[in-house]
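User: My collaborator sent over this chain with a note saying "see what the structure looks like." That's all I know about it. Can you take a look?
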Amino acid sequence: TLQFQPSEVAKLGLLLVLAGTLASARSHRLLVGLGLVALPVALTLIEPDLSTSLLLVLIAAAMLVLARIRLRSLAAIVLLLGALAPLALHLLRPYQMARLSDFLSGGSGEQSWTVLQAHIAVASGGLLGAGSSLPHGLLAQYLPTRETDLAFASLIEQRGLVAGICALLAGAVVVWRLAAAARRTRTRAGSLLATGLAVLFGAEI
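Assistant: Without extra context I'll predict from the sequence alone. Here is the result:
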């Protein structure tokens, strides 16, 4: 079954509209940009998808810095977000709070068990991969979300550390080429878009 998340398109859409908005010389570009960011972030939070919301905020923050928004305005935004952070915690679902608490404390909850399974998968892969003849359903019990969250651990388990290193190097090349393209573009919007894509892919990797 093929699954599709509209939030994936929202990442690229946000980059496109922010690049065009922040590249303009309008005095109110910051307010328009923040309004454009607020809608997709709010929708993904309602979904709920905390990780995508945080990634959208990261993209927006990088774009604001790259657009050379005044430091005073950026500091005001940071202070406002810091003041609202305690209120935002009350909007999180119980399982999201459990994951956040487990991550910060290094406890022994479900999230730590998942990370342990990923460590076991990476260790069992060796240099060239262990491969497996087990059914997919049985494999999923040992390494949950092996096609999404733990895809990298699954790759190393099946193809080895060499394949994992090659995947990381390929990702680094993509980010480097996007950063290089940002310096060669003829328009400010193009430069912001290329750099924003570099931040997106770098954060995803």
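A starting point for your reply to your collaborator: The chain has a mean pLDDT of 79.
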